[in-house]
Amino acid sequence: MSIVYSTLNKFIDYWKDVEPSKNAYKILSERYFLKTPSGEYLETKWADICRRVARVIATAELVNNPAMESKSDSEKLDEVKSWEETFYNFLLSRIFIPNSPTLFNAGMGVRHELLWKPIEQMTLEDYWEIYNSRNHLHMLSACFVVPVEDSIEGIFDAVKEYALITKAGGGIGSNFSRLRPKGSFVAGTHGQASGPVSFMHVFNSAVGVVEQGYRRRGALMGILNIDHPDIEEFITAKEGNDGEKVLKFFNISVGITMPREELLRLYMEDGEIELKHPKCNTTKKVKVRELLKKMAKNAWKTGDPGLAFLSEMNKYYAMYPEMVIESTNPCGEIGLAPYEACNLGSIDVAKFYLDGQFNWEAFGEATRLAVRFLDNVIDVNVFPLEKITRAVKDSRRIGLGIMGFADLLYLLDIPYDSPEGRQFAADMTAYMAIQGHSESNRLAQEKGNFPLFEKSRYYREEGFAPFAMGMSKFDDELRQVLSESKYGKRNVAVLTIAPTGSISNIADTSSGLEPNFLLAYVRYMNKHDGGKEALFYVNRVLEQKLDKEILEKIKERLVEKGSLKDLPEVPEHIKRVFVTAMDISPMDHLLMQDAFQRYVDNNISKTINMPNSATEEDVLNIYLEALKLNIRGLTIYRDGSLQTQVLTSAKNLKTKDAPKVQFFVLDEKHKLRPKPRKDTLRSVTRKFKTDSGTTYITVSFDDNGEAVEIFLSNGTELAEAIGRLSSIALRAGVSAEEILEQLRKVKGTYTPALAKEIKSAIDDFVELWGETPAETIDTFVIDGTAKTAEEIEKFVTANGLQWAEGYYIDADGNTYCPSCLSKNSIIKQEGCTSCRKCGWSKCS
Ligand SMILES: [Zn+2]
Questions:
Q1: C-alpha distances in angstroms, 652 versus 647, 672, 677, 681?
Q2: Is 329 a catalytic residue?
Q3: What residue stretches are annotated with the Ribonucleotide reductase large subunit N-terminal domain (predicted)?
Q4: Cβ < 5 A residues, ion ligand 1
Q5: What CATH number does residue 732 fall under?
């Protein structure tokens, strides 16, 4: 093998000996280790995953490497083994991790013995068997775009394609603008069309039916162009979030098809756009200001819709106008032509910091090796549709990105929200573009061009650049590399910045290009005696840089506040560098997105975080600023806006349908919370006469015959107070026996006598209502660890939760993580919903 990664190898050697953290292992064992259908673990170490994935990806060299053909079998074997070992160490070091579908599905269909057999014993036949036995589950890509045509046949073909891709575990985006608007004439039926939004519900339901387990939820992107006659209905499509009618699997975005400068001009001049559709004779004019205001209002409320600048994507698309990008994937980082798919992977840039410096050379070599890896993924991928296989092989699009950016800036002492931070981002990404594109050019010489190359602008257009540039010292060098693309290119696009949710947790680094959301958090570990121990996790860079004594003093407040901002003990320079997502102004978020996008040929997944106090006007201003920058998509998230969506139907849950379970629920402040009271309960009432009057005692019982409420009335405050406090204690899981024990200890005559009467009321229950069969009572603690599907189901039913947008929500609008059930721990980052307690991420 002629390619040497000498500087990179030094970093690989260092990092492959660093074990993944407990937290990383928890995620691996909950979701990533391969299991038999009966649940037995086939993998128990990160190294096992790395071996399986590296081995499968290396087999691509047998089929996509023309130099192999002239080699003898033993040379071929050496070559494949050598690539397996290179990829294995690369993955083991966690410097590079591919997207979750690759980790999940590489090796599907292959005999298990072959996946972890010692490499010395591997034969060429073994590698061929691996390659040839991949089955229909061997789907390694994350992103898909499916076109939706304006006919009943076309729509239902697409629905079927959605079902197949969802089943395979991919996220799908579509542009629904071809569908004729609501109310327009349908020939042959004398009927009226129901419009794109109503059809999106069909897609949503289809995905809901085929959705598999809870490892990956169905994730969809629906786009409607800004000039479609139904755009106003579309903007508010997710407004009435009642858990039933809402398009729960869809992120929605308004497609901006005109140049962004044009949209900004129309806004400034208070101009109008014409809403029109070729199948519809009537047109309508709408003020751009009204439309944008409406979008801002809804985004302020719920985060939807986002904006997808399709014109910008096509401006920089190497196949435009031959082919057109009409939609993105669910998180927005990849714009695709119809039936294209893309596989992604990310490099942890924080791992290249050594001795006070960022090692450019090693980072460059890692970029090159990762490009080869992702290019190989294309040749071992199995897609559910032949049309996708063809489109992917024609373009060979890959999406290499980064993670660990925030941690790297901490290490370099550069604030994220500063000109230096943005400059570093631009230089780093420009350098990555130089290495990534030059490797794609080189691979074309070694393995051949992507089949559409001669139709591409790389071949046809002198000086074509797939991004804006203009900010880095590397611009000239990058232009040089891009101009060499005219001699050949392996991939239509190379870079992206994708959400890295779970894989950044596996790499023990910060997520994608995003700032950290938290600098410290608490997780609970089981102790031998059955109790729980609270463990503090502090950002590893902060731990290195902040004085130990100060850290010890502030850590509890840091967990609570989530930011160093208001902690007087912390030195100013540390505060300035260790900023979190909520410390950073929306404009600084936006400028960082611009800096990255200038050097990325695919798109970027980033969320513009706004404080809860932000107004609709603030959101609108961010839109206008975005129109002046090099931005291809916009997702905003106002802190707390997920929690304030009010549900109406949750209240209609029938109490008799709730299972007989009892939960001790720890909420975000680690306190016991009462479980909800049902509307109808069985009860026993007793009359208790004393010298001072009569007390009525009513004890109510749940379906298990457990006392859950005590109601006391004799016209005094004391009786009512005892009743109310006892009831809330009962509902929080304190036993009736313990409560009565406390009441008996009260010095006086009334309360201990009352305790005795309450005891009698409880004893009367069996006599009056009969024996309730003993039920097993489940108890578990909400502490940031993943729950089983069964536990989740019970919890959700018992608490009357509704499914909304990828998480659960209660009648008061509180959110619950779909993995660990933590309350109000759901945030939006990287254009994606994630849990800050357990690291769960909707897209990973
Ligand atoms: Zn969680």
A1: 10, 25, 14, 17
A2: yes
A3: 19-108
A4: 817, 819-820, 822, 835, 837-838, 840
A5: 3.30.390
